[in-house]
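Supplementary Methods. Inverse-folding protocol.

Structures were first reduced to a discrete structure-token string of length 227. This string, shown here, constituted the complete conditioning input.
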């Protein structure tokens, strides 16, 4: 069991410093050429790996050009174009509906406010944060995906279970200049070391400050289950 620093703020700053040294090139892994492609890629990434999304969008972005193409697409044909993606039928509906709204209410442009983005079908706060940060260079929150959720609980940064509550805790302790990068660092570390099943604590740069580090501790703080 590691020993976390005295305050959650100190713990968070140390976590960011160490992970930045470990993953100096950390950034978003989804591939896109414009804001609409980013929005669609993030919608598709829900409960699906970025690698799979990138493979699927290679042909998708060649087939459909702009919001009008998606809004006017045949539902079954669009779903078939997404059939290797989890929940592809629902995501096809979200994409068509979101693009209809973008055409009708936003002159064909992806909106640049949290309220307007979260009014689009299939867009929650996490997706909106990604689009704001990487599409509009607006950082007003922290993207809480499954990796951020898992690592922030394991590292003792929050005891909350739901993304929006976790985000509020993190906003209080993550330096504002690191809000965007914090997510990318957690994703990289979550994929490489701090995996959901059987994390490699022996090779973790955070092990000595992690209260979930396997050893004397019996509980995974992310899940509450025994190791």
């Amino acid at each position: 069991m590691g020993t976390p620093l005295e305050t959650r703020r100190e713990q968070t700053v140390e976590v960011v410093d160490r992970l930045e040294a470990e993953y100096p090139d950390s950034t978003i892994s989804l591939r896109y050429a414009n804001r609409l492609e980013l929005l669609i890629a993030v919608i598709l990434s829900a409960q699906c790996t970025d690698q799979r999304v990138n493979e699927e969008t290679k042909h998708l972005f060649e087939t459909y050009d702009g919001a009008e193409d998606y809004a006017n697409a045949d539902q079954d044909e669009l779903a078939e174009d997404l059939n290797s993606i989890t929940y592809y039928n629902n995501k096809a509906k979200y994409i068509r509906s979101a693009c209809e709204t973008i055409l009708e209410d936003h002159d064909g442009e992806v909106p640049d406010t949290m309220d307007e983005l979260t009014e689009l079908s299939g867009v929650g706060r996490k997706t909106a944060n990604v689009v704001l940060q990487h599409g509009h260079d607006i950082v007003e929150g922290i993207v809480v995906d499954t990796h951020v959720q898992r690592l922030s609980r394991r590292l003792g940064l929050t005891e909350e279970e739901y993304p929006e509550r976790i985000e509020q805790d993190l906003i209080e302790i993550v330096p504002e200049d690191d809000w965007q990068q914090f997510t990318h660092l957690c994703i990289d570390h979550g994929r490489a070391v701090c995996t959901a099943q059987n994390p490699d604590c022996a090779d973790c740069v955070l092990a000595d400050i992690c209260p979930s580090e396997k050893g004397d501790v019996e509980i995974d703080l992310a899940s509450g289950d025994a190791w």
